[in-house]
Each structure stands twice: as C-alpha cells, then as structure tokens.
Amino acid sequence: MSGLTHIVTATAIYSAGKGKIKTPFLLLLAFLSHFALDSVPHYEFSLFLNYAVSGFALFLLAIWSIVRQDFFYLAAGVLGVIPDANWILGISPLLMKIHSFMHFHKL
C-alpha cells in the first residue's frame, strides 16, 4: 500500500472524529488503520517513489497543521505511515513482526 494512502486515511480518521472522539483514541485508530489497509490485497510502488511521495505528503500535511494550528493532523499522518518507516529503519522489531504478519501476502 502506498504511504500516501496510509497518510490520507489516518488523517481522515482524525479529521472525521475531531471534537467527537477523544484525541488519543483517534490517534490509536490512525495507527491501526495502517494494518487494516495493509491486510487488503494491493500492489506496491517502487520504494523510492513511495517514500518521495510520502515525504512530500507529510510536508504538505505539516503546512496544513501549521495553518490549522492543530498538529494532531500531522501526528495522525505520521502514525498512519510509521510502520512502513520502521520496515526500512528497523527501530522496533516487535512492530516489524506485527507489520509483517498483518501485511497482505501474494498467494
């Protein structure tokens, strides 16, 4: 799944629930949305293209967060894509195991 898809979905979850649902729960849902999306059959883009587009999307989301004066938009977007970043950086072995388990595998 593209990083952009994860970022947009996570941000949409925060945006839709803002003011109705407590922020920590929305951020948890934003994070968990990554695994829900990755469990759906999908195609992967090239690593470079995926990270370039994701980086640009996060940059735009940072500007949006500044303009709206609400950095939880950016937090949700980052949480939505962080399992993919961990896949490359290998910061959390546990997160990597969960991510690999939940990720769609071609039959």
A few lines on this structure:
This protein has 107 residues and is mostly helical.
Q: Would you count the extended β strands for me? A: 0
- Give me the strand/helix succession: HHHHH
Which spans of ≥5 residues are poorly predicted at pLDDT below 50?
none
How would a crystallographer describe the biggest sheet?
none
Strand content: under 5%
Structural account:
The chain has 107 residues and is an all-alpha fold. The protein has one domain. Helix content is 76%, strand content 0%. The protein contains five helices and no strands. It is globular. It starts with a helix and ends in a 5-residue tail after the last helix.
List the helices and strands and how they pair.
Blueprint: H1 3-17, H2 23-38, H3 47-68, H4 72-89, H5 93-102
